[in-house]
């Protein structure tokens, strides 16, 4: 049954910030490659600072994925309609195939001076079958839809919230720890592409995010009330988890800067809780953030293509001003270019199947007070 109350400004804020965080992360990543920044090249301070900033931005992709379940869980608390999966498969799996095809062309041209048809087919197969590109998150989101049905119909009715959260977070951490702490590629059966697929695509790699989003969405009003009481502890938790992430990275215990780290789970959840709490206090969401939220799906899918274009056109002579200018231009071009293309594609029939649909604007929602009154639901305990 669909809940008449909608997540309004909290999700606009979270989605837009997650989206912009992803673009900034990729702008910095592209700058490192473009200017060949490394300690061996004599730029020891600059890449270290960039990596630190990127570490603090690692919440972006998990937050984007988290939001998808929180909204579903709040909207469909006790079940989903019969056409639930069919509608979502169209706008999740088809864009996955489209992006896999398009990005395979870009990838081959980046890695090979003289591309061949065989190389294109090989790259396409990797993208389609092993999600060897940024579009893997679409498969994660679709798995969340399946998990939501399972949790709503069976798990939440048979097990307590506490038990489910402890087991799912524990399983998530242990699963990721295998990839984070063990050099699996050095083992006899270690294959980079298989290991990468298992590290990021199976639902267990994101199960903690899902279960927390599931229960926060089902009990959204109680969740908001709890945050109001515990926000100081949440802020302290985020500071400690961020420090732990940076220490583990600097110590070389987990030196990869990517979101599939078990310590990122705790950091991200804390960041989400803080953002939800303070966005709830806003009387009005800035128009620019609403627009970014509406086009976030397209921005996420198209950002890498613009990064490639900017890196092909920009001079590669390193200096700090050139680096900063590159990041600003890459960021702006990716955001505004993605919005423009998404807008144009949504004007044609099959366009949304490539970059997704444009989201609703906040003005299309009912005022929050009216929603709360209409829903007739009181703030209660988590269940």
From TrEMBL:
Organism, as annotated: Paenibacillus catalpae
Signal peptide: none
Pfam family, one: Acyl_transf_3
Domain Acyltransferase: 14-342
Entry keyword annotation includes Transit peptide: no
GO biological process, one term: enterobacterial common antigen biosynthetic process
Entry's transmembrane regions: 12-28, 48-72, 93-113, 133-152, 164-182, 194-212, 233-252, 264-280, 292-311, 323-345
Protein name per the record: Membrane-bound acyltransferase YfiQ, involved in biofilm formation
